[in-house]
Amino acid sequence: MDLTITVAELRYALDTFFFLISGALVMWMAAGFAMLEAGLVRSKNTTEILTKNICLYAIACTTFLLVGYNIMYVDNTEGGWLPSLGTLIGTQAEGADHSLESDFFFQVVFVATAMSVVSGAVAERMKLWSFLIFSAVLTAFIYPMEGYWTWGGGFLAEAGFSDFAGSGIVHMAGASAALAGVLLLGARKGKYGKKGEIYPIPGSNMPLATLGTFILWFGWFGFNGGSQLMISDFENATAVGQIFLNTNAAAAAGAIASLLVCKTVWGKADLTMILNGALAGLVAITADPLSPSPMYALSIGIAAGALVVFSIVALDKLKIDDPVGAISVHGVCGLFGLMVVPLSNGDATFGAQLLGAAVIFAWVFGASLVVWAVLKATIGIRVTEEEELEGMDVHDCGVGAYPEFVSIK
């Protein structure tokens, strides 16, 4: 037997397995988003937010298989902007390092992650079916288009834009779509007073929110580590180890930074801010988890963890109601992560990073705004005041998340 062929086959199998396991870790992040959001909404909306999360994942997997992957990767012009439209995932390239199917699986869970960002931001007042229709459009078309321009070898890739695992392509894109929806949707009833007062609306279950954050933290090792794409030789295996170290360091530093900011400003350890601080560190390091030194990864996490606290407060003052802080975590800190890449990666430039961020935001926000506006003008995007007051679990799903807890009047 030819030893070279045997080694090549072994590396192919190992890299394929690495892709599949990394994708499975990212798929587990869907559970993290579901638990985080279920914990941060009120109990009367818990079943509905869980329904959104499992349905958006199913929709993303279906639409990306049918058309999204093809738009993003199959038979496209290098450096172009208009994809060659087709269906399904194409055929295996000769000499590939891993199976085509494993590549699709790894990519499809990223699409679902982008859409998961939207669900938390529009929670507690958006119609379920309007949300699900938007999920299909974003995952079939809006996300794959900017995915082609970047990871698919389109004009942003040619311009030198660098986003290792998706601070902008996944996270900021999801936040851009969420922002468009929130602006048309409006705030929850009782969130803001007529004279500018801001009234907190506490979540129903902090243990669930904390569990969700830990699940996301865990899944992020697949998100960033798997984006190295290979592990079957010394260089790539070493790189994956560095990525894991930096990813974990940034998350830890983000949590600590938000804790210290909260204690300094308000004198309290605000758990929701600490959870978002950890996620902010993860989002920021995702743009390049390989190039930074461990100390620089800690610095990125510290900056992101502090930034997210002030961003959440600022959006509240602007009356942009985001129940879970998704726009700040994934949007503001996603942009921050993109812009600090050139400080550790000599191949990246601030000009290319700014161009990429601007194009991604303009495309996803603009396209999403159009889709949300069409939905608002046709079937509507906001539930009635009565439905919002009673909770969407009863009206959309017909079952409460905690049926044993009843009020006796």
From TrEMBL:
It is a multi-pass membrane protein. Residues 18-402 form the Ammonium transporter AmtB-like domain. GO terms for cellular component: membrane. Keywords: Ammonia transport, Membrane, Transmembrane, Transmembrane helix, Transport. Its main location: membrane. The chain crosses the membrane at residues 12-33, 54-74, 104-123, 128-145, 165-185, 206-223, 243-262, 269-287, 293-315, 327-344, 350-375. Gene3D superfamilies: Ammonium transporter AmtB like domains. It is found in: Membrane. One of its GO terms (biological process) is ammonium homeostasis. It comes from the Bacteria. One of its GO terms (molecular function) is ammonium channel activity. InterPro entries: Ammonium/urea_transptr, Ammonium_transpt_CS, Ammonium_transptr_marine, NH4_transpt_AmtB-like_dom. Belongs to the ammonia transporter channel (TC 1.A.11.2) family. This is Ammonium transporter. It comes from Vibrio sinensis.
